[in-house]
Design goal:
Number of strands: 11
Shape: globular
Largest sheet: 7 strands, mixed
Order of helices and strands: EEEEEEEEEEE
Number of helices: 0
Radius of gyration: 13 Å
Distance between the termini: 40 Å
Structural class: mainly beta
Helix content: under 10%
Amino acid sequence: QLQLQESGPGLVKSSQTLSVTCTVSGDSITTNYYWSWIRQPPGQELQWLGYIRNTNTYVTPSLRSRISISRDTSKNQFTLQLTSVTPEDTAVYYCRQGVSPAYWGQGTQVTVSS
């Protein structure tokens, strides 16, 4: 059974780097799926941030200068890093396998303090 579990710092200070990790069980992240990051700021719609697929990554152009996505195949994890965070980066961060159908983690709340 596929499971995705996000983990993150909970609270980050402005200007610091946010790092959230998705631990996957029940499938290998080396499979040919889009392994994505999405976030939902409070009161806003979901925002797709980027994906890693095999060794290729793609991130949303609006955040390209601040985002990186990597993976650790030995741990079956993939990680989002977001630099120079501001309170506007406060959100629930989700990881996801696939597009349609898609399987989601339950999300992890990250709050950026000013």
